[in-house]
Amino acid sequence: MAIRKPFCVKDVLQRPIFQDAKLVAGRDGLERPVRWVHVLEVTDAAELLHGEELILTTGVGLGRDESLTFQYVRGLIDRGVSGLCIELGKYFPEVPEGLRSLADASRFPIIVFERPVRFIDITQDIHAHLINRHHDQLVELERISRQFLQLTLRPQGLRRILELLYRETGCPVRLQEEDGEVLVYPEDAEAEMAASASGTPEGTGPGQGEALDTEAAGAGEAAGESRGPRVFYQPILAMDTRVGELSVVVRGKPTEFLHLVLDRAATAIAQELLRRMSLEERRLRTTRRWMDDLLHRGVDHLPATAAKHLRPETALVVTAILPLPRGGAVEAATAPNPGSATPGTQAEEPGEALRDSLEGSPEDRLLLRAARILPRVFQNYGFTAWLSPVGNHWAVIAANTRATADSGGTKGTRNGGRPRGAVVSSTGTLVQESSELTGSRRAHTRPARDSFPSPPARDSDPARSLEPEVMMRVREALRELMRRLSSGNAGDGQEWVVGIGRIVFHPAKVSEAWRQATHALAAQMPSSGHPLGISSAIPGPRLLAASGSKSTASVAGQADNGQPRISFLSYDDLYTWQVFLQMDERALAEFVDGQIGSLLAHDRLHGTELVETARMFFACNQSKQQTAQALFIHRQTLYYRLEQISALLGDGWNQPPRRLALEVAIDAARFLAARSPGRGE
């Protein structure tokens, strides 16, 4: 339709009142848009112009001064005027050849009337036409807006909006939501958009929040310069919050009508996203109710949609997540306390903190984004998952829906054939064995099985061999979730602390797995509130024991290649810390002082490393050669240190059962130092 294209100089020449006019210069500039007609007889009024005007003059102010004429026309060109109409007569009998050359070089149309014309007739005609065009554009925009709004009430509303936008503008379109979801129409236009984006003008790139600018985009195009396809961006705003970005491939200069259509499309998309957020908030409230019962009270009044996935014999993984602003901290008191919820207590009304979430805190918006994209992310990794806020952190329950081809495990070993304490890479390869495993291989007298009490029964073995593979997929799903959450404004600069409970195979045991997950999370949060940065590849207690509290604080949350900073720790990797976390720290400190207090005091007073030497000596199975190598000291230095340890602890310190007590005490000292970095060893 003609109203969708700009009204140009060539269209002006088609008007009946211009039938006797002649174009004498600037033929290549006929595509210049005309937004208004103005009569200008003075030579110094260029500063009063806005651009894209068609100027009418008799030349009375120019006279026969050719230099003044050149200066006048040059000022019009510099101001972006669309063209110059001159009534030839006694004041301006002809257009100088030099002026024609200037106009041709600048693609600036010069039109002459060889007979007198009524300028008022020209202005009335052109202005009436422009006003009628504007009215027709508004009518057309109203029609398109109604269609956009109707599509928000239909399934796949966003895709249908993009399809209508493409039909109305002819421009390939792309929508990127803040959670990373991308829609492109036509679907094969992604390559074209990527190629065109390389020519995007400065200031209109993605993420800069610049709306499509019909005046600033491509100044040369006003002069008729041909340019290739370009990508322009329209931010999607809802209640002053950026929720997405709409981009279009524009061939040539974007028109004002295109700008208006994009604005209507952005409004419809924002309404659709707001509707989605409202539905997600309601869904989150419902999920929070039954998850709160399941996590804290073991009550499994599950809705039908959850009950079909949370069946007995299904592998269930429970995760506690604490999102932190990068470099931020939380008070130790806000760390998850699994024992705080007691039967009969009413949790905070679900959704209370989420009301008006777009106007609320970034944490609320981040939670809604997470609740929206988590099911899709985990589904890609073979899980049905649910998320619920618990205090200042999140709970995630993931039900395995994928069978593995490697269903056979090694009997007699936990974690599907992986020795206890082994360190496994993300691909499942055994890369390190723990000192506990190495120590168990030395020769010793094994007591009869009947001399040990039977351990508490854990889940039967219907899918025990799935544990390593399931845990690996859970971690990968969590990394993907946090990567996508960290890519948006609400999650920018986010750090994540994650605790993972043991896999359970019955909904009734989810509360126990939640307790374990919160313990694993709490183990990473010292009293300072900063995450300790436990590596996901190395069990947390071993890292802390090897590095000390100061070192572990310095490596907190290191990220590689721009990935989000995540601190993972599984409950099974806590080892003795599983007990420490449930003990009174005062009683634990008394135990440590009673066992290795003399070593700690000596290290503090003299700056020695007797505690670390004893720890490494036990870890190396009391091999002096290996211990010296591990500590990077001479063997004579090690002998001297061992003599000091013996003098402080007494004879038999390295023999059972004293050795066991000392190993536990050393580990407990590391635990206390990690939990309270200011506490000295």
Automatic annotation (TrEMBL):
- Biased amino acid composition, Basic and acidic residues: 458-468
Q: Where is the Purine catabolism PurC-like domain?
A: 11-130
What stretch or stretches form a coiled coil here?
A: none
Ranges of biased composition (kind: Low complexity)? 209-225
Which parts of the sequence belong to the PucR C-terminal helix-turn-helix domain?
Answer: 610-667
Q: Which domain of life is it from?
A: Bacteria
Composition-biased stretches, type Polar residues, lie in 424-438
- One of the Pfam families matching this protein, by short name: PucR
Q: Where is the composition biased (Gly residues)?
A: 409-419
The segments labelled Disordered in the record are 193-226, 329-360, 404-468
Protein name in UniProt: PucR family transcriptional regulator
Please give the organism.
Kyrpidia spormannii
Query: According to the entry, what is the taxonomic lineage of the organism?
Result: Bacteria, Bacillati, Bacillota, Bacilli, Bacillales
